[in-house]
Amino acid sequence: MNEDSFFEDLESQYSKQLPFVVYSRPINSVIKCWLQKDNDLYKTDTFKESGFVFAPFNLKDSDSSVLFPQEKCWFAEINSDLVETDTFSSTEILQNEEQKQHHIHLVSKGIEHIETDTLEKVVLSRCETKRIQNHNPITIFKRLLSRYKNAMVYCWFHPKVGLWIGATPELLFKVEGKRLTTISLAGTQPYKRVSQPQWTAKEYKEQQIVTDYITEQIEPYTKQINVSEVNTVRAGNLLHLKTKITSVLNDKAKLKSIIEALHPTPAVCGFPKGESKAFILKHENYNREYYTGFLGELNLKQTTSRNNNRRNVENNAYAVVKTQSNFYVNLRCMQLKNDVANIFVGGGITKDSIPENEWEETVNKSKTIGSVLD
Ligand SMILES: C=C(O[C@@H]1C=C(C(=O)O)C=C[C@H]1O)C(=O)O
C-alpha cells in the first residue's frame, strides 16, 4: 500500500464517521491503522479478545475500555519514512493567570495532604483549552509523527466517544508470550542539550516510588524480575528518569490481572494507589476521561521463525506463534472537539514539590502537543 491510499482510506473513514486508530510505536518505522467496519461501540472487561484497546483513567467508571475487535476491522500498514508533513508555524499557548492560580492552589492542597496523611505522592493535572484553525486530525497526527520518533504517536476516533491524539513516551507494559516488559518513568526537566543533566533527590525519590510499586505489584505474577539502572531519557522538549523492568510471567498470570496490578501506576496517579486516586477524583475538578488511561494492541498473534535460513523448506515447522499485547499510558495527549483542543497535562507531587515549579512543568508538557497546533 502506498502513502496516498493509506491516508485517503483514513480520511474517508473519518468523513463517514466510522471508528479508526492510526499509530506508530516508538522507534518503529511502521504506521499501522485499524478501520472498524461499523460504528458500534464494543467494550472489553475481560481483556481476552484480540483487537485494539482504548481505556480510561478510571476503569471503574462508566467509560469502560473501548475495543476495536480484530474481526470487525480492516487493517493496513505503511513505512513511516514515506510520510511528508506540511510546513506550518504553531501559535503560542497563552498562559492564563486564573488557571495558573487554580493549579497552584490544587498542588498546595496536595502537598498539605501529603504532610498530614499517609499519602506519599499524588499526580495532579489540568486541562488546557486552545482554539485551533486546522482541525484535520490526520494532519495533526503527521506533524506529531515527524517530531516524536521515540513516542507512541496515535490518533484515535470513535463517533460515540470522541477524537484523541497524542505522543506518549510511556509504556504501561508489553507481553510477548510469557515475557513481561514495563518501565518506571517519572521526574521531569526541560531538555537543554547538556550531556549530564542534574536531577534532585526529590526527582529520584519520586521515580523510585514508581519502580518499587511496579516490582511489588508484578511479583505475584512473575518469576525473575530484572530492574535496570536509572537512566535519563528524552521525550521531545523534556527529559525524564526511566528504569526498565523485565520478567517472566508465571502460570497464575492473566492479562487482566497485570492490568489491574499496574494501572494506574504512581507515575500518573500516586502512592498509595487508593488514596491518591480518591484525592484526584475529589479535588482535580474535571474528568480525566482517557488521559492517563492506556491504549494499544491486545492479544495479537505474532509469528516468528526460529530458523533464519529462508531457503530451508522446513522453516514453517520451526515457526513460533506468540500472543503479544502492548499498552501505552495516554499522556501528552489532547481531545479535539470542533475547533477546540483540550490538552491534558500533569505532574507528580511529593512533600518537596514547589507549586510554582509544578505549574511550569505542566506548561512545558503542554508544549509537546501544543507545538503541532495552529
Ligand atoms: C502526568 C504526566 O506525566 C507523568 C509524570 C511525570 C512527572 O511527574 O515528572 C513524568 C512522566 C509521566 O509519568 C503528563 O505528562 O501529563
Descriptors:
374 residues, alpha+beta, Anthranilate synthase, 10-stranded antiparallel β-sheet, 9-stranded antiparallel β-sheet, binds the ligand C=C(O[C@@H]1C=C(C(=O)O)C=C[C@H]1O)C(=O)O, Chorismate_C
CATH topology: Anthranilate synthase
Distance between the termini: 30 Å
The ordered H/E elements are HEEEEEEHEHEEEEHEEEHEHEEEEH
Q: Write down how many β-strands occur, each being a DSSP E stretch of 2 or more residues.
A: 19
What does the main sheet amount to?
Answer: 10 strands, antiparallel
The total number of structural domains is 1
Shape call: globular
- Mind telling me the CATH class? Alpha Beta
Arithmetic mean of pLDDT: 92
Briefly note the structural class of the backbone.
Answer: alpha+beta
Work out the helix count. Answer: 7
Bound molecules: the ligand C=C(O[C@@H]1C=C(C(=O)O)C=C[C@H]1O)C(=O)O
Low-confidence stretches: none
The named CATH superfamily: Anthranilate synthase
How much of the residues is beta strand, in percent? 35-45%
Please state the CA-atom Rg, rounded to the nearest Å.
21 Å
Q: Judging by the overall fold, what is the CATH architecture?
A: 4-Layer Sandwich
Proportion of helical residues: 25-40%
Domain Chorismate-utilising enzyme C-terminal: 100-365
Pfam families: Chorismate_bind
Protein name: Isochorismate synthase
Could you explain how this protein is built, in words?
By secondary structure, the chain is an alpha+beta fold. It has a single domain, classed as 4-Layer Sandwich (Anthranilate synthase), CATH 3.60.120.10. Helix content is 26%, strand content 37%. The chain is built from seven helices and 19 strands. The strands form two sheets. Strands 3, 4, 5, 10, 11, 12, 13, 14, 16 and 17 form a ten-stranded antiparallel beta sheet that branches. It has a nine-stranded antiparallel beta sheet with strand order 6-2-1-8-9-18-19-7-15, sandwiched between helices. A hairpin with a 2-residue loop joins strand 18 and strand 19 (340-349). The chain is globular. The two termini are 30 Å apart. The chain binds ligand ISJ.
